[in-house]
Specification:
Layout lengths: L5 E4 L5 E8 L3 E7 L11 H13 L1 E5 L16 H14 L5 E7 L2 H10 L4 E7 L7 H11 L6 H13 L6 H11 L2 H11 L15 E6 L7 H10 L3 E6 L4 H16 L16 E10 L2 H8 L1 H21 L3 E2 L8 E6 L2 H17 L4 E13 L2 E3 L1 H12 L5 E4 H7 L5 E9 L8 E8 L3
Parallel strand pairs: 3-4, 3-5, 5-6, 6-7, 7-8, 12-14
Antiparallel strand pairs: 1-2, 2-4, 9-11, 9-12, 10-11, 12-13, 14-16, 15-16
Helix pairs in contact: 5-6, 10-11, 11-12
Length: 441
């Protein structure tokens, strides 16, 4: 049964089409630019997903201004204008708090709303989320949109195939929905303005538990983008979809998203030992220049080597008394926690050796501080600092914070070379870092 479409009026007088179905905790779903409340209901996999959501709580969907069944005669597609659409809908429904789910190019809007109204967003799900459009995404789409109006059908088909996978049989129906969702001139103006969106400075203000869902094979907004966001959003976890087909990836997404929204997070890979909140020593390891290595080796060969290294790093971490964090394990990097600075440093050195022998040198950083732990996940400012320190290291080099150096100075059997105070992105004050040198301490 199709939902009943209603309308809400924004503060600047725009009529926004929406519907609400189901009972219980609200799930507000945002989507741009392919949004048409009636036509998307005709796509079987989309409809099934919405019906599943409506069984869990109250599903709320709406078309943004300029799209679908909402007012089309608009020209302002700034973040501020588009947030008025969301505001109008949730206020009309008198929703005091709700889960917010964003996909397409909507994630920056969801981030901005969650940062501005933290008391209203219970949990945040960002599918292929980003803070600003990466060039790997804007370049191919820009070329398509530059084609003349006579090729509009080809453009929409190509856009859907680019976003959904070139062989996906649902890209045709999705393109048909897209052509009904928006006219070409509106899309061009929307695209021009959306390239100016940038909510990076707001990420640290998002306090809602956040799930980042990214597809491993996505060349535009894939795991690398997820890693960057996860280090900047205080309470973020990551689910990487690596299924061979769209159906498999949808099933993986449901396995991650549904338990997350109903307070029963299920780790996507092997079980790890329970974690307790408090102070931890954090190791962050990341393959150096993975993009160049992928281009040199080829995607399949690089991923095979990365999986092999992933297993080696897990073994090293376990042997040195650490725990790899499943929610942050992205295939070409690893986050682990330890109770001992000495053990963390020993593990970092061993990880560096494993990376070198496997032909995939690592950036390695270690920091200690208070973290918040939930099930098999860990997050907080200390995790961000460990990641930033890792990014400063040379391939194969282990850098540690002054805190870790103080904890391990007399026990680690290494010496430390002062690298001075470093300004870290997303960290308010400079952090003094030290390079670990084997052979005496």
């Amino acid at each position: 049964m199709e939902p009943r479409i209603q309308y809400a009026k924004t503060s600047d007088g725009v009529s926004i089409a929406y519907y609400a179905m189901g009972h219980g905790t609200p799930f507000v779903c945002m989507n741009l630019p392919n949004s048409h409340l009636q036509m998307e209901w005709q796509m079987s996999d989309v409809r099934q997903g919405f019906e599943t959501t409506a069984r869990l709580g109250t599903l709320v969907r709406y078309d943004h201004r300029g799209f679908g069944l909402s007012d089309r005669d608009v020209s302002d597609f700034s973040i501020e204008a588009l947030l008025r659409d969301l505001q109008a809908v949730v206020d009309r429904l008198e929703l005091k708090s709700f889960n917010l789910v964003a996909y397409g190019v909507s994630p920056p809007l969801a981030i901005a709303f969650a940062a501005a109204q933290p008391d209203r967003v219970l949990k945040l799900v960002l599918w292929s989320g980003f803070a600003r459009l990466p060039e790997t995404f804007t370049e191919p789409i820009g070329k398509l949109l530059a084609l003349d109006a006579s090729q509009w059908e080809f453009v929409t088909e190509s856009l859907m195939r680019l976003g959904m996978g070139w062989s996906d049989e649902m890209s045709g129906p999705a393109a048909a929905t897209f052509r009904e969702s928006v006219v070409r001139d509106t899309l061009l103006e929307f695209w021009r303005q959306s390239q100016e969106w940038n909510v990076t400075s707001l990420l640290h203000q998002v306090i809602a538990p956040t799930l980042l869902v990214h597809e491993k094979a996505d060349k535009q907004i894939g795991p690398d983008v997820a890693r960057e966001l996860a280090t900047m959003i205080p309470d973020a976890r990551v689910a990487i979809l690596d299924g061979a087909s769209r159906q498999e990836r949808f099933a993986q997404a449901a396995t991650a998203i549904i338990p997350f929204l109903v307070d029963e997070w299920v780790a996507p890979r092997e079980e790890v030992s329970p974690l307790r909140s408090g102070t931890a020593v954090i190791l962050f390891a990341d393959i150096a220049d993975s993009t160049a290595l992928t281009e040199r080796l080829g995607d399949a060969a690089f991923r095979a080597k990365a999986r092999e290294l992933d297993g080696a790093l897990r073994g090293v971490i376990r042997e040195d008394g650490g725990t790899a964090i499943e929610g942050k394990l992205l295939g070409d990097g690893v986050l682990a926690v330890f109770t001992s600075a000495r053990q963390a440093i020993e593990a970092a050195l061993a990880c560096g050796a494993a990376g070198a022998s496997g032909g995939l040198p690592l950036h390695l950083g270690v920091h200690a501080g208070d973290v918040i732990r939930e099930e098999n996940n860990v997050y907080g400012g200390a995790v961000n600092i460990a990641s930033r320190i890792s990014g400063l290291s040379e391939p194969g080099e282990v850098l540690v914070s002054d805190t870790v150096r103080g904890l391990a100075r007399t026990s680690a059997g290494v010496r430390f070379e002062d690298r001075g105070e470093q300004a870290l992105k997303g960290v308010g004050e400079p952090v003094r870092v030290w390079a670990v040198v084997e052979g005496g301490g």
